[in-house]
Amino acid sequence: MTDSSTQANGLQNPAHVPDGLPASIRHYIDGEFVDSIDGDTFDVLDPVTNQTYVTAAAGKKADVVRAVASARRAFVDGPWPRMLPRERSRVLHSIADIVESRDARLAELESFDSGLPITQALGQARRAAENFRFFADLIVAQSDDAFKVPGRQLNYVNRTPIGVAGLITPWNTPFMLESWKLGPALATGNTVVLKPAEFTPLSASLWAGIFEEVGLPSGVFNLVNGLGEEAGDALVKHPDVPLISFTGESSTGQLIFGNAAPYLKGLSMELGGKSPAVVFADADLGAAIDATIFGVFSLNGERCTAGSRILVERPVYDEFVERYAAQAKRVRVGYPHDESTEVGALVHPEHFAKVMGYVELGKTEGRLVAGGGRPEGFDTGNFIAPTVFADVKADARIFQEEIFGPVVAITPFDTDEEALALANGVKYGLAAYVWTNDLKRAHTFAQAIEAGMVWLNSNNVRDLRTPFGGVKASGLGHEGGYRSIDFYTHQQAVHITLGPTPNPTFGKQRS
Ligand code: NAD
């Protein structure tokens, strides 16, 4: 690393550049690193300086066609789909071992490329390892149904991998989100083409080396970098890709849904969110404030399950807003590689401009009580101070629209009914957080919220066995635990007759 000395203002020098960055980022197809067929590339910026630090191959339809052909060959002729679950499980455990053993390096690269605080990038690298380990365990524990009709029939489920899975991922926590798809897709014996987000291609380029080290057969994993409208689009429209697992914005999900329709593909869609955190007056206010600060400012607020709308019951509203704003002002914005940083740099200047637009809009839609622009001492780079708006009305755009940055709207309510109407009054339905010590209210409220996942008196702590997915504009289908296995496999029903064949005889010879 270079230049990470402390400056006069006490902050670490922003010009931290990890050692050993690649000279360029290439595709990985059929076991080889390759450039785009037309030689095209795109620039990749680091979010602290917004300078181009590397160029990446810009994949087009022809590159996707090549990658899918490789994945298809590996599926049709290769050993991977035919290996015993235990054999694939061993490979996945080895991947997890390597990711774990290189967590610090992965975190350093991810933090540099995405602007995520280094400590949080480290947590995400470990989670990526855990995703592989989890699916390695699950695939050997997997059992399938068999049904007996006594004396007459036996029916069983013949579970098989589907083919080439197209995996399209976003730029927030890129490595971890890729593992979330790669783990189950590979565990079940599919082959894959991964199209990572164009803002953050660095960590995705590391998978190829890791997979080679553990002996994943060539062609099982293929990577095509490039823009969504080009490489992503070609993957969605390729007839030999029967599955698309997509994580990204709801509007992109809608487009992909339409583009995949003529091919009747299997789709799993993890989309945007505008999740409510509902704080009742009887809640443990200290715990609720800690959790809701973490819930929207961790991962720079670039988190699909961020609790970006906080609804607070009137008797504790003023106290909550005052304490929340005071604590938000203490959240430490810093350079991504600095271990004391709690909020780093947003991923890209385009995204920074979008979030800043919402910060300015918020000043006309709510009462600014913390943040509101660049933090002091950060005149360049994609830094935004944790920003809190109080008294935000339900029809405000900052209440309705996903901002995906360190910006939160706080709104008071008087009754449970009003809280529920506010919570459900947006197009999204990904996560919800409820804070109350009243057991009956907690469960009644949780079950009435339109959200794929609800946490009671907790921030977002996920058990990998539980379903993950959103309702309304937040997604289609569920992944997580056995549901991911279901998405990536066919379940063929095989029926066998026992005893006499129970045929009705048509065309019977009449005597
Ligand atoms: P995005 O939709 O812009 O891009 C996601 C991916 O789709 C990228 O790889 C992009 O290149 C690709 N893409 C874009 N257009 C495409 C097209 N026409 N065809 C095929 N692929 C295309 O999303 P983003 O800005 O990268 O990520 C942020 C969004 O992701 C937020 O809305 C966030 O809530 C969501 N997200 C959801 C979850 C979840 O699990 N629900 C998790 C993380 C992020």
Mind explaining what this structure looks like?
With 511 residues, the protein is α/β, with parallel strands linked by helices. It has 2 domains: 27-271 and 474-493, Aldehyde Dehydrogenase, Chain A, domain 1, CATH 3.40.605; 276-456, Aldehyde Dehydrogenase, Chain A, domain 2. Helix content is 37%, strand content 20%. The strands form 6 sheets. The protein has a 7-stranded mixed β-sheet with strand order 14-15-16-13-12-18-19, with helices on both faces. Strands 9-8-7-10-11-21 form a 6-stranded mixed β-sheet, with helices on both faces. Strands 5-6-22 form a 3-stranded antiparallel β-sheet. Helix 2 (85-101) runs antiparallel to helix 4 and helix 4 packs parallel to helix 5 (174-187). The termini are far apart. Nicotinamide-adenine-dinucleotide binds at residues 168-172, 177, 195, 197-198, 227-229, 232-233, 236, 247-249, 252, 255-256, 270-273, 304, 402, 404, 430, 470, 475.
Compose a concise summary of this entry.
It is built from 15 helices and 22 strands.
Given as residue ranges, the uncertain stretches (5+ residues, pLDDT < 50) are: 1-5
Number of domain units: 2
Q: Structural class, judged by helices and strands?
A: alpha/beta
Strand content: 15-25%
The total of helices stands at 15
**Radius of gyration using CA atoms only:** 25 Å
Strand order of the largest sheet: 14-15-16-13-12-18-19
- Ligands bound to this protein structure: nicotinamide-adenine-dinucleotide
Helix content: 25-40%
Let me know the largest β-sheet: 7 strands, mixed
CATH C-level label of the largest domain = Alpha Beta
